[in-house]
Sequence to fold (385 residues):
Amino acid sequence: MTPRAFAEVLGRPPTLAWRAPGRVNLIGEHTDYNGGFVLPAAIPYGVTATVAARADDLVRVASAQFPGPPAVVRLADPEPGTVPGGAAYAVGVVREMRRRGLPVAGVDIHLDGDVPQGAGLSSSAALACAVTGALDALWGLGLPVPALVDVARRAENDFVGVPCGAMDQSAALLSRAGHLLFLDTRDMTFRHIPFAPERFGLELLVIDTRAPHRLVDGAYARRRRECAEACRALGIASLRDLATDDLPAALAGLDDRIAARVRHVVTENARVLATVALLTEGADPRRVGPLLDAAHRSLRDDYEVSGTELDTAAAAAVAAGAYGARMIGGGFGGSVLALVDAARRPQIAEAVRTAAARTGLPEPRCLTVTAAPGAGPVPPEGRRG
Ligand code: GLA
Fold:
């Protein structure tokens, strides 16, 4: 986003801009709404929200990716389901701030991002976090970072209708370059874990399978309900209350499907802790590879959120020399993350494309990601135009 582009679409100069990144998750999937552990990192792709206050009660949202007239709503009570596309996340943030009694007024918002869409890299959380940070700065709200995380998440939950946990917003707002974010979603405490795979000649390869990825489809919400059902049956507040040693007794009384969901969540938490232990003792990250493979099997077989495209890409990457590979994000499409030797990246990417073609699947797109900095203001001199 440039000031000139803002002015062209919205007819006036902008006041300030904030940028928030997408995320990749090394390990810890479908744990964040179960009070569990996650280990994501921000990626070097993000969304910039450029804003200017208005004197009336209109919220106008324009986007460089969806050119055309801005979406326009009145501040008073926009109804969920009435704002289409990415603008819904921005309007959801304004509405959530207003619901909290914050001094919110009319505003013009312009969005510009480069997070691959539908790839499971949290372009939507990046958008919501960029808008949250921009409006916090514009209106001088001074919200602490945990409140920014919560506003962005509630906007998604309550206005857009995606019942997501807090991983993606936390990764966008709390990440540090060269580090993973080790977050305990039970109490939202976190630690930054140094992560520099390049020192070991390694890379994180993201394989976007280009299979459609839709959290709103209902399967994600169904998994959440199944976890809640398991907690009720077990008489616990959250699946976080179970350790791997408790599993045999806990699973015995549950039906097979619910038992499998519980097994995934509990073993996934253990895999996050094992990964953190390896990385904090300075181990070669290659040793994390088998944990990634185990996470993929668990997501595929116990949690049942994988799919042909994801399974094909993960298997092809490992067969071609990746140290481990797994689907990331909500699942049912999106991307696979593979830990690879930087020198072997071209061969592995080629093997993944060949496997997809052989199976009649869309051609995957491969990109390398590094652990990037979290969200923040875009300095005026950094804005071109
Ligand atoms: C999506 C959600 C996250 C998290 C992951 C699965 O990305 O937005 O909150 O639940 O799925 O780990």
Q: What stands out?
A: The mean pLDDT is 95.
